[in-house]
């Protein structure tokens, strides 16, 4: 197939914006369709990416039985330095150009990368068993030796050059890295190659960068592929999160997550400078650095379209956060917000050309219709590798060569699943 030149991206959150930025930069004529441009710099403030913690943490997220997700996450982590380098000129706005951020836009300007290094903590014996199980499986899956219970290493003697993605450390070493953390921790791991980004600054930089590269933005809801008929698109990219189900038969559902934004006050213990993830009596918790504060999450509920922040959710997040970082009680609680994460049927996103059988209309209004949806809680982290993959399909067509990790996320796997169930 000839290279597609005129591209529609349906969905203007982090996945759609990253694709638009990379494609426009590569010379494609890109138009982004999204009904929500209510946030600063025109980014969608109702999207999951606006609420997100922004962690880049594939080993910390690993869970037995999901090897494809782990490999895709590792590929995404490796792709982030190049993407951040491309976005550097748009972090603080586009000087003198359309979309330049002014003083009225405090959220989407500034350095995108907020921290390097991640601590993963277990608060009791059961939490420790869960973490050991997950990390041993992740290391084995990636061809590395699991660490024995006696293996503890001072992270100060270790860098990424040592090629150690996961390091077991003692509580003393944990406190050396983050003095404000509680000593009542049973187990601690350090991931030197992981980290976090400011999701809102990322969204702003992507929007400004895509516009500067020639991308167009249309505030419009697309309810069916036929809405784009006659507009001459060579390719349509579906990056609409849960809204992708209006356009395709790919199963995507909403999973609610609540997040707190907490900021230091004078005299407070300084916030951690590394990402801190923990299991607190079986509940997952993360503390993600931001300038002068933290993002705290995350609850997870199957509540459909419910975006309301609950008293119980805030209570549990604060109680668990105080267990790990006691000084947080003196911080200012500045924002409580809930987002809807677009989850796939198997916790792996849909990335790649969509078979005709999985389109709602049964036929396409463009030669190439590509999925980039269903990223769940990892939309920000996976945006780098997703954009690379979609660019490969735009340049090479449906038969483009992609990595094994990306190929595993192809939407056609849903058809194989359906056929398997029918045969039983």
Written description of the protein model:
The model is unreliable at 95-103 and 418-424 (pLDDT under 50). The chain has a domain at 6-105 and 198-250 and 345-422: 3-Layer(bba) Sandwich (FAD/NAD(P)-binding domain), CATH 3.50.50.60. It is an alpha/beta fold and 424 residues long. The chain has helices at residues 14-25, 48-51, 58-61, 67-87, 125-141, 171-177, 199-212, 311-324, 379-396, 404-407, 413-422, and strands spanning 6-10, 29-33, 55-56, 113-122, 167-169, 187-197, 216-218, 235-238, 253-263, 275-280, 283-290, 293-297, 332-343, 350-353, 368-373. It is built from eleven helices and 15 strands. The protein is globular, with a radius of gyration of 21 Å. The strands form two sheets. Strands 3, 4, 5, 6, 9, 10, 11, 12 and 13 form a nine-stranded mixed beta sheet that branches. A six-stranded mixed beta sheet has the order 7-2-1-8-15-14, covered by helices on one side. The relative contact order is 0.20.
Task: Provide a quick synopsis of the model.
With 424 residues, the protein is of the alpha/beta class.
Chain-wise SSE layout:
Elements: E1 6-10, H1 14-25, E2 29-33, H2 48-51, E3 55-56, H3 58-61, H4 67-87, E4 113-122, H5 125-141, E5 167-169, H6 171-177, E6 187-197, H7 199-212, E7 216-218, E8 235-238, E9 253-263, E10 275-280, E11 283-290, E12 293-297, H8 311-324, E13 332-343, E14 350-353, E15 368-373, H9 379-396, H10 404-407, H11 413-422
Parallel strand pairs: 1-2, 1-8, 2-7, 4-10, 8-15
Antiparallel strand pairs: 3-6, 4-6, 5-6, 9-12, 9-13, 10-11, 11-12, 14-15
Helix pairs in contact: 1-7, 1-9, 4-9
């Amino acid at each position: 197939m000839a290279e597609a030149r005129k591209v529609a991206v349906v969905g203007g959150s982090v996945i759609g914006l990253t694709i638009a930025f990379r494609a426009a930069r590569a010379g494609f004529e890109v138009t982004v369709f999204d009904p929500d441009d209510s946030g600063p710099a025109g980014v969608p403030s109702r999207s999951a990416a606006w609420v997100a913690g922004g962690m880049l943490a594939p080993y910390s997220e690993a869970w037995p039985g999901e090897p494809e997700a782990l490999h895709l996450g590792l590929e995404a982590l490796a792709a982030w330095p190049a993407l951040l380098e491309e976005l550097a000129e748009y972090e603080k706005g586009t000087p003198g150009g359309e979309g330049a951020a002014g003083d009225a836009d405090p959220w989407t300007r500034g350095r995108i990368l907020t921290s390097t290094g991640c601590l993963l903590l277990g608060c009791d014996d059961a939490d420790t068993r869960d973490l050991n199980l997950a990390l041993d499986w992740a290391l084995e899956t990636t061809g590395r030796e699991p660490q024995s219970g006696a293996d503890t290493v001072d992270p100060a003697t270790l860098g990424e050059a040592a090629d150690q993605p996961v390091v077991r450390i003692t509580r003393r070493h944990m406190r050396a890295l983050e003095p404000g953390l509680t000593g009542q921790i049973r187990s601690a791991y350090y991931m030197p190659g992981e980290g976090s980004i400011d999701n809102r600054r990322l969204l702003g930089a992507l929007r400004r960068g895509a516009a500067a590269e020639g991308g167009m933005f249309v505030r419009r809801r697309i309810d069916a592929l036929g809405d784009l008929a006659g507009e001459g698109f060579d390719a349509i990219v579906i990056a609409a999160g849960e809204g992708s189900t209006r356009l395709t038969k790919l199963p995507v559902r909403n999973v609610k997550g609540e997040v707190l934004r907490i900021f230091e006050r004078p005299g407070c213990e300084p916030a951690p400078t590394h990402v801190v993830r923990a299991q607190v009596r079986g509940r997952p918790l993360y503390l993600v650095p931001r300038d002068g504060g933290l993002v705290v999450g995350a609850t997870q509920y199957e509540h459909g379209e419910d975006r309301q922040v609950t008293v119980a959710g805030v209570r549990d997040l604060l109680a668990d956060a105080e267990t790990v970082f006691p000084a947080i009680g003196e911080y200012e609680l500045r924002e409580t917000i809930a987002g809807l994460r677009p989850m796939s049927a198997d916790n792996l996103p849909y990335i790649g050309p969509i078979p005709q059988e999985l389109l709602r209309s049964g036929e396409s209004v463009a030669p190439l219709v590509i999925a980039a949806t269903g990223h769940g809680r990892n939309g920000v982290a996976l945006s780098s590798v997703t954009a690379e993959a979609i660019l490969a399909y735009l340049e090479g067509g449906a038969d483009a060569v992609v990595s094994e990790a990306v190929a595993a996320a192809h939407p056609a796997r849903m058809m194989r699943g359906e056929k398997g169930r029918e045969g039983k």
